[in-house]
Amino acid sequence: MDSEKPSKPTVGLKSPLGDRRDDRCLNTSPLSYHVDTSFDNIIKSPGWRSPVKAPTHSSPLPPLPQGSDLIMVKKRRRLTMDTLEPALTLTEALPLSSSSSAVGASPSAAITDDGNRLITPSKPKVEPIQRRTPSLNDRPIPILPPVEHPLAEPREPQEEKEEEEEEEEEKEISLQDLKYQESQLDAQLRQWKRLVQLSTQAYKYELKNEDDQLKELILKWRDAAQQAANYLLNQASERINRMGGFDEYQRRQKDRAARQSDTSYDFDSSFTDTSFMGDGSIIDIEELSPDQREAYDQMKAEREQQISEEIERRQKEAEIAKDKHCESPDEEDLKEISMGYMLKQLNVDPLLLFPEGLQ
């Protein structure tokens, strides 16, 4: 064991395994050189694959020029604390746990050279703004009146309809009475206006002292009226003579008055009203609807009222004519027309033309 000496490594040979060598290459035999040489050849052979990565000898790359776009400088991200946010004290920044593992695990914690802990302020969390959804309660709901629909109204009972019809009839009657009273008042107003005009005119004549002039005018126009009456009497007598005499004239006048007084109107179911149908056709009452029947009855009543008024008017005219043609005791012996008879038929007062009387 003492005779063995450590062998020196062969100069010029460097094993890729570093200081590690095979025991076969560390013997003192004279063939060690040849063994080392053969080992180097095996290592340099292309089929050899070393489990350790061999160092590569490469030439350094030329430096890139300054300001080139190929150089991308990586910027460090810095956390800035808001100036408006108050700075945290050391007691507030340190966590309650004093374990070193918790401090080392915190990404934002760092230890300075003095041994103090420096807390990097984190970015404040911004809570999202909660938007309130609009609601109908924000605005007051207006109170609307109920919708009135004609079909929704209840039907009135028959009694209420009859009462309404009676009220309408009373209103119509009251309107007719008011119209009649209005017409009478208008007639009275016209009469009083005429009297007022006559009185004012007479008062003016008295102020002007024109009585003598008025008397002269009265005499003048009375003479003219007498002459006109005499002319009409001559013309009437000639016409009556051509007719057949005064007796024939009186008979014709009596027949005419009788025809005027003889008026008769019949009303039945076939009442004809051109204003209702428009074409003058006969109306069948059974085929009419209730509304048309009501309108028909109303128009028929109005028509009957008009006819009754016409009958009364004609009856009055017949009475007046009868009074005119009624022979007085003085006229029974008349054989020809006289001045008094003619003026009476003309509704002229004989004393107006002949104040002294007729001869």
Give a quick precis of the structure.
It contains 10 helices and 2 strands, in the order αααββααααααα. It is an all-alpha fold.
Report on the structure:
Helices cover 48% and strands 2% of the residues. With 359 residues, the chain is mainly α. Among the domains are: 1-45, no CATH class; 246-331. α6 (246-261) runs antiparallel to α8. The radius of gyration is 74 Å and the shape is elongated.
Please identify the oligomeric state. Answer: single chain
Q: Sheet bearing the most strands, described?
A: 2 strands, antiparallel
DSSP strand content = under 5%
Structural class: mainly alpha
Descriptive keywords:
elongated, two-stranded antiparallel ribbon, mainly alpha, single chain, 359 residues, 2 strands
Task: Annotate the secondary structure layout.
Elements: H1 32-44, H2 90-93, H3 100-105, E1 109-111, E2 117-119, H4 158-208, H5 211-243, H6 246-261, H7 274-277, H8 290-325, H9 339-345, H10 350-353
Antiparallel strand pairs: 1-2
Helix pairs in contact: 6-8
Biased composition (Acidic residues): 159-171
Biased composition (Low complexity): 98-110, 261-272
Region (Disordered): 1-30, 46-69, 98-176, 245-272
